[in-house]
Amino acid sequence: xxxxxxxxxxxxxxxxxxxxxxxxxxxxxxxxxxxxxxxxxxxxxxxxxxxxxxxxxxxxxxxxxxxxxxxxxxxxxxxxxxxxxxxxxxxxxxxxxxxxxxxxxxxxxxxxxxxxxxxxxxxxxxxxxxxxxxxxxxxxxxxxxxxxxxxxxxxxxxxxxxxxxxxxxxxxxxxxxxxxxxxxxxxxxxxxxxxxxxxxxxxxxxxxxxxxxxxxxxxxxxxxxxxxxxxxxxxxxxxxxxxxxxxxxxxxxxxxxxxxxxxxxxxxxxxxxxxxxxxxxxxxxxx
Length: 287
Fold this sequence. Notes:
Layout: E1 11-22, E2 27-30, E3 35-49, E4 52-57, E5 60-64, E6 70-73, E7 77-87, H1 95-98, E8 99-100, E9 104-106, H2 111-121, H3 138-149, H4 153-171, E10 175-176, H5 183-194, H6 202-208, H7 213-224, H8 228-246, H9 251-257, H10 263-274, H11 278-284
Antiparallel strand pairs: 1-7, 2-6, 3-4, 3-5, 3-6, 3-7, 5-9, 8-10
Helix pairs in contact: 2-4, 6-7
């Protein structure tokens, strides 16, 4: 990862604040198109992740990737700072998609001060309440993205620099996602991310990788755990989720933007991916 440029990383603070709980931080099946960073200051809580239950405790920072289904469990006193992080989907390199970050790292003595400073620079960006349904919606995300983009340059620089400092704790031990060690597949994944709105030809990817189509599919599946078609569909549906929440673009247009001429087929794929139709997805998240 030493060849990566900081210019390729484009994080934005979506929400930031401080919460105090006493057995009331209990939310099931939370899944958001943004990442979460926590700094615990008092007590303990648990987060049920796809790979099991994990404990959040004082003296540590915690990171939950975007699109990760999880549940929060709290039975006593628990206080923490939180930052919700949005990554520009148009960036050349996606930290959240291409790197696997640790869930827990030890916090530095300055980290609580950094959290307080980030709050001071973004006074209107706290969530109204800890229930994800109260802030994990189109209007909240869109207004905060607009607010963040319209701030003075000096504020943007300090806010982004502070966020970079906090995220650097996790990047120290980050690894390439899925332990992909075949450069041909890695290049294909990068191409897919940068051209997700197009019709991606698997045969063309195979040719660019100097492999037959069948051989490419076998190597791709071995490296990622899924076939190229399944991977592309997954990424298109995640992109659709983000557009449904952060824009008012009609569903038919979103389908077209992602390369689906048949809206019914797009709706079928989206429902298989999220268990909701695109319209119900929007309704559930506040539209």
